[in-house]
């Protein structure tokens, strides 16, 4: 299916003002954005316009009842300069999973992908050439009804904007397991959806963790504060006595696309991988026995974020230096290598940006 995406180009590009060697994460934005509106039961007026502000009614329902979802993804350039995505269709599917959970309309996958290709093709010069950097892409949707009343909105706006970013976590991070706050309910909540409110609820625990000297929170389950779920805004992996272990999806854990990529790649290279519940006490016991070899987070922004130490109930677990680790550095090099074209993509995950060919 082809959509008639109207394109209005920016008169003056801001690209020359960008220092690609010094990019603050999430504060620099490209020249254009994609916009579409949901009205009368269908998506209308798909368009690419100059990046900029838009007006919002004070009674817009998103401001009062939180119907808002988003995705995070990247575009990179291979060593020959070809811009491409990594598994873009998975992000379209996950956005729609979130939409269903929040009683919002789904975005047709064809529209999502066509908008993505057309927008990134238009702003492909914004993709940083430096290794570890990328063009970050933020698709999101929110409720637009001008109404004070608790019900699903009838109108929505879907937007995609982009911006160049450097490495998200250039240094290993320290974690503290939280036994007071939970990221999301294990079952029946919104933990497996990429919902704006999930991140709002994480801000206070993260602030308290920072005040104690830690970078991020390691989330435990909401029922018993016993089983590990995620870390900060990422999925989490442990290497215990040579086995790579990650929490099993339980309804409260976001099904990360980088997580899924890691789980598919590691066994192909001889690593033993387990998806199962992991109790915090098991982690402490493994550390005391000298079997906890690595901890790392995974996500679109960071790809792999190495963990320097984990604290729980006053006990700190110091991890080996990154240069002494095997799994985390290996899988990051594998994913980055596929993104640069230096390592063969055997799965068909690398999708070149098609740009205007999509509209042909």
Counting DSSP E segments of at least 2 residues, the number of strands comes to 18
As residue ranges, the low-confidence spans are none
What is the fourth-level CATH superfamily of the largest domain? D-amino Acid Aminotransferase, subunit A, domain 2
Return the structural class: alpha+beta
Outline type: globular
Strand residues, percent: 25-35%
CATH architecture of the largest domain: Alpha-Beta Barrel
- Count of helical regions: 8
**Topology pattern, helix = H, strand = E:** EEEHEEEHHEEEHHEEEEHEHEEEHE
| Overall tally of domains | 2
Q: What composes the largest sheet?
A: 9 strands, mixed
CATH class of the largest domain: Alpha Beta
Helix content: 10-25%
CATH fold annotation of the largest domain: D-amino Acid Aminotransferase, Chain A, domain 2
For the residues shown, what is the average pLDDT?
95
């Amino acid at each position: 299916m082809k959509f008639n995406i109207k394109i209005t180009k920016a008169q003056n590009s801001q690209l020359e003002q960008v220092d690609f060697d010094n990019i603050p994460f999430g504060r620099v934005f490209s020249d254009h954005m994609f916009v579409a509106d949901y009205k009368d039961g269908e998506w209308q007026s798909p368009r690419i316009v100059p990046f900029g502000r838009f007006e919002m009614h004070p009674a817009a329902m998103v401001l009062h009842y939180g119907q808002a979802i988003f995705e995070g993804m990247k575009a990179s350039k291979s060593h020959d300069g070809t811009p491409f995505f990594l598994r873009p269709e998975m992000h379209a599917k996950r956005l729609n999973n979130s939409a269903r959970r929040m009683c919002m309309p789904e975005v047709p996958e064809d529209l999502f992908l066509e908008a993505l290709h057309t927008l990134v093709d238009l702003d492909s010069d914004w993709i940083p050439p430096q290794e570890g950097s990328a063009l970050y892409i933020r698709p999101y949707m929110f409720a637009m009804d001008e109404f004070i009343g608790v019900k699903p909105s009838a109108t929505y706006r879907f937007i995609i904007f982009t911006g160049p970013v450097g490495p998200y976590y250039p240094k290993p991070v320290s974690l503290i397991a939280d036994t007071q706050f939970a990221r999301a309910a294990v079952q029946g909540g919104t933990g497996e959806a990429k919902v704006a409110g999930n991140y709002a609820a994480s801000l206070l625990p993260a602030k308290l963790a920072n005040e104690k000297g830690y970078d991020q929170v390691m989330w435990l389950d909401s029922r018993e504060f016993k089983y590990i779920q995620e870390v900060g805004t990422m999925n989490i992996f442990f290497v215990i006595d040579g086995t790579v272990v990650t929490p099993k999806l339980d309804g409260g854990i976001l099904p990360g696309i980088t997580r899924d990529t890691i789980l598919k790649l590691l066994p192909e290279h001889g690593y033993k991988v387990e998806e199962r519940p992991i109790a915090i006490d098991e982690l402490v016991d493994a550390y005391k026995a000298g079997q906890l070899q690595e901890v790392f987070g995974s996500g679109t922004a960071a790809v792999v974020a190495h963990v320097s130490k984990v604290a729980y109930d006053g006990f700190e677990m110091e991890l080996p230096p990154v240069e002494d680790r095997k799994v985390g550095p290996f899988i990051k090099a594998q994913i980055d290598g596929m993104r640069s074209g230096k390592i063969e993509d055997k799965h068909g995950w690398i999708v070149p940006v098609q740009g205007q060919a999509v509209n042909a």
